[in-house]
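Researcher: Let's run the pair from yesterday's discussion. Sequence first, then tokens, for each.
Model: Starting with the first of the pair.
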Amino acid sequence: DKPLPCPAGRYGNRVELSSDACSGPAAAGYYTAEGSTTPEQFPCGSPSLYCEQGSSEPRMIPPGNIGDGGDAMHQSSFTPVLQVSCNPAALLLTLRAHLQDSRASAD
């Protein structure tokens, strides 16, 4: 019996895998098609998309949210945009704080 290829959202990097769980899920910020041999087959690909671990295709970030958990082409999650006044200085401070939090969590 020939083994079946790994399903989309998973990858197999060994011959004769015995489980459809394969070697593991697609990496966060990436997605995989059926038969993938790497967890980073395709980057999520756009600042408006995200790919959680185990993704079989990119998903749109819902309105009112911004991508999080990776660089612009490898978003793995999203977070709500903070509601701020129309004060440009307040908006700039909010964005700077979000960037600092993102960088700190990446370290």
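Model: Moving on to the second of the pair.
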Amino acid sequence: IGESLRILGYEVVEAGGAEDAIRQWQEYRGKVDLLFTDIGLPGRMDGLRLADRLVESQPALKVILSSGYGEELVDPARVAAGMVYWLKLPELRSHRDNIIVTAVPVR
């Protein structure tokens, strides 16, 4: 997915799990516009908790949650408000790219 985002013109920071994502977040604080995460992540923190933690410190952060399951865990009010986007896997690449560009247009 990182390579697809780069092709679309985005700058990408990749992490190996939630704990690594938090370390990256601290390093790139204020430069991140979008969190794209699976709900199921290695380690003690899942993608939902990661998103909540990062949005708490940057409320304007857009979030794309993806998974092959777990849609019922995603807050429909946040989806309706355009704060969170849901991408059920597996998904067509073109549909995924549309969701990403809708969430955060390429600058």
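Researcher: Give me one sentence on the second I can quote.
Model: Residues 71 and 86 are 7 Å apart (CA to CA).
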